[in-house]
């Protein structure tokens, strides 16, 4: 089939979140002809997949999109959902990207004559270069055992949770204790709901330590500038679960042990449903201890930095458990528990099945170095630890976008500059 009538764009950017808009900002600065394709609306994830009480877990000063830093009056505070959306709305206006909303990309493949074919819900484009900026959190993870739960139990995924009132009466089982699970469990707990939390293996960190936000200390220690190839885990860090902490009410620790002392029921990892009973892995104590070990290890690294630099700071001390599980409880009778709803908070899987190019590993993750793939002209942006800790966040995506824009410019044809 002839492709001569297809629209040609020098660079196609897939995804209209902060990553796609950031690369668009730099491509506009360079005058490179490009288009941003967004299957829904710009920055929709922040509007449609966050609960009402959502707030940042990193301080506002880390919000630093291209030529668009946080300029509010509370740099060490934590923007709430509405404030984040308003800030992003300003960034959308700031970039004024050449965007086409409601245009889903269904396939990207190589053209025989060079470049790429980009098939969309509204026709096909050709491009010299493609930037995949659609993030890495696409398909909500819900285990198949969910199909065997009673129909009377309402089940939602973390991206669908809004507030405690949307769930029916009764206890709520929250499955997973990463950032979303821990914060949603807290949201329900503060509202007076009975919460049963299936604790995962996520680590935790302190909000404040020795007089400052831990993020401020880690920034001074250059942790956020560490490239992935220098991290002790190397690329393995990309598989790590984020530490749980919160910016709610000015910021504080999330201490699952304290919640337990206040009536939250903690169990280990949820494994199955058998004969009307939920079955849990007997690893609650180990998970809590491991999370606290990480908490104390991070604080110890701050202690060492303070000592080495001769910094005057208030004294610190290790965290000591305020509650211990008396025994490992491996089962919970579902009917007797009073559980009326379940919130699945066990993450998302990437889905790059629409990219018909051999650049992925066995786990479906693209092979790249700082976003540059082995296929000339194909790039990824906005993935967790693409280059540094901040690559998938407001704090580091600008650096990554600038790097890729420079690369794109060197690869662009002379006629790729917009008029």
UniProtKB/TrEMBL annotation:
Keywords noted in UniProt: Oxidoreductase
GO molecular function annotations of the record: flavin adenine dinucleotide binding; monooxygenase activity
Pfam families (UniProt xref): Pyr_redox_3
InterPro entries, per the entry: Auxin_biosynth/cation_transpt, CHP04046_FMN-dependent, FAD/NAD-bd_sf
Protein name: MSMEG_0569 family flavin-dependent oxidoreductase
Organism encoding this protein: Paraburkholderia acidisoli
Taxonomic lineage of the native organism: Bacteria, Pseudomonadati, Pseudomonadota, Betaproteobacteria, Burkholderiales
């Amino acid at each position: 089939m002839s492709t001569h009538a297809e629209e040609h764009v020098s660079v196609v950017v897939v995804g209209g979140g902060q990553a796609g808009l950031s690369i668009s900002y730099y491509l506009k600065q360079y005058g490179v002809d490009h288009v941003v394709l967004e299957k829904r609306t710009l920055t929709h994830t922040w509007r449609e997949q966050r609960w009402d009480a959502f707030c940042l877990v990193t301080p506002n000063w880390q919000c630093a999109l291209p030529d668009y830093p946080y300029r509010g009056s509370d740099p060490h505070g934590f923007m709430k959902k509405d404030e984040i959306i308003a800030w992003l709305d300003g960034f959308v206006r700031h970039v004024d990207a050449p965007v086409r909303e409601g245009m889903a990309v269904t396939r990207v493949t190589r053209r025989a004559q060079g470049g790429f074919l980009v098939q969309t819900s509204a026709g096909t484009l050709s491009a010299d270069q493609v930037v995949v900026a659609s993030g890495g959190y696409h398909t909500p993870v819900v285990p198949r055992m969910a199909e065997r739960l009673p129909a009377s139990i309402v089940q939602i995924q973390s991206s669908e949770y809004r507030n405690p009132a949307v769930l029916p009466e009764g206890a709520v089982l929250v499955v997973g204790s990463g950032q979303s699970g821990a914060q949603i469990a807290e949201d329900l707990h503060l509202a007076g709901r009975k919460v049963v939390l299936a604790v995962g293996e996520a680590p935790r960190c302190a909000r404040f330590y020795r007089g400052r936000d831990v993020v401020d200390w880690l920034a001074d220690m250059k942790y956020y500038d560490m490239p992935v190839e220098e991290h002790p885990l190397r690329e393995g860090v990309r598989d790590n679960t984020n530490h749980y902490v919160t910016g709610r009410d000015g910021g504080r620790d999330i201490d699952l042990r304290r919640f337990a002392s206040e009536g939250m029921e903690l169990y280990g990892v949820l494994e199955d449903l058998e004969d009307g009973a939920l079955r849990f892995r007997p690893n609650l104590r180990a998970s809590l201890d491991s999370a606290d070990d990480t908490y104390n290890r991070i604080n110890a690294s701050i202690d060492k930095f303070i000592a080495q630099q001769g910094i005057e700071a208030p004294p610190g001390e290790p965290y000591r458990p305020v509650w211990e599980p008396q025994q490992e409880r491996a089962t919970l009778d579902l009917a007797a528990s009073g559980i009326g709803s379940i919130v699945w908070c066990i993450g998302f899987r990437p889905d790059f099945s629409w990219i018909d190019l051999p650049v992925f590993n066995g786990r479906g993750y693209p092979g790249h170095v700082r976003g540059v793939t082995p296929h000339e002209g194909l790039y990824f942006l906005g993935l967790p630890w693409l280059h540094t800790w901040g690559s998938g966040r407001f704090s580091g995506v600008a650096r990554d976008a600038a790097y890729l824009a420079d690369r794109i410019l060197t690869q662009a044809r002379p006629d790729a500059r917009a008029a």
